[in-house]
């Protein structure tokens, strides 16, 4: 569905541009999720204004769960608090199931060929950019 809509309304963009957009979104939402957890931890240490738990959980639902889970472990933040964890991991599960269902639908309907996309020039560029910038992340 997403590929067809994008191709219909953005005729100059190919599947490679769509892949780059997807990778950029995932990177941005995960970086934002890490930032939210870091900020909330700092505020907890200073007894300052906190990020609402619903905001942290929403970041997982929007796809930032990888960064969020990494941040929880790295900053030792929100690792034992209930019901936050249950709701957060429910959002993670929902996100994973939805992404898997969408990927299955797109690949089985022939609208998305992951192997073809990854082997395309734009797909290779996107992967190389992520690898390049991932090396520079320091916490």
Shape: globular
Order of helices and strands: HHHHHH
The whole-number mean of residue pLDDT values reads 80
Number of strands: 0
- List unreliable stretches of 5+ residues: 1-7
Main beta sheet, described? Answer: none
Can I get a quick summary?
The chain is mainly alpha-helical and 139 residues long. Helices cover 78% and strands 0% of the residues. It contains 6 helices and no strands.
Explain what the structure shows.
The chain is mainly alpha-helical and 139 residues long. The chain contains 6 helices and no strands. α2 crosses α3, α2 packs parallel to α6 and α3 packs across α4. The longest helix has 32 residues, at 15-46. The N and C termini lie far apart (38 Å). The model is unreliable at 1-7 (pLDDT under 50).
Key features of this structure:
globular; 139 residues; mainly alpha; disordered N terminus; 0% strand
Provide the fold topology.
Layout: H1 2-9, H2 15-46, H3 53-75, H4 84-108, H5 114-119, H6 121-134
Helix pairs in contact: 2-3, 2-6, 3-4
């Amino acid at each position: 569905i997403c590929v067809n809509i994008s191709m219909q309304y953005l005729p100059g963009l190919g599947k490679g541009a769509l892949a780059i957009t997807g990778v950029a979104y995932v990177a941005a939402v995960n970086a934002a999720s890490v930032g939210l957890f870091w900020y909330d931890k700092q505020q907890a240490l200073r007894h300052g204004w906190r990020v609402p738990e619903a905001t942290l959980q929403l970041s997982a639902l929007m796809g930032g769960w990888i960064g969020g889970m990494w941040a929880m472990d790295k900053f030792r933040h929100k690792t034992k608090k209930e019901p936050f964890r249950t709701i957060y991991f429910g959002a993670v599960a929902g996100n994973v199931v939805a992404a898997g269902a969408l990927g299955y639908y797109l690949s089985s309907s022939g609208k998305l060929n992951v192997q073809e996309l990854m082997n395309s020039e734009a797909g290779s560029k996107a992967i190389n950019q992520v690898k390049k910038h991932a090396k520079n992340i320091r916490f």
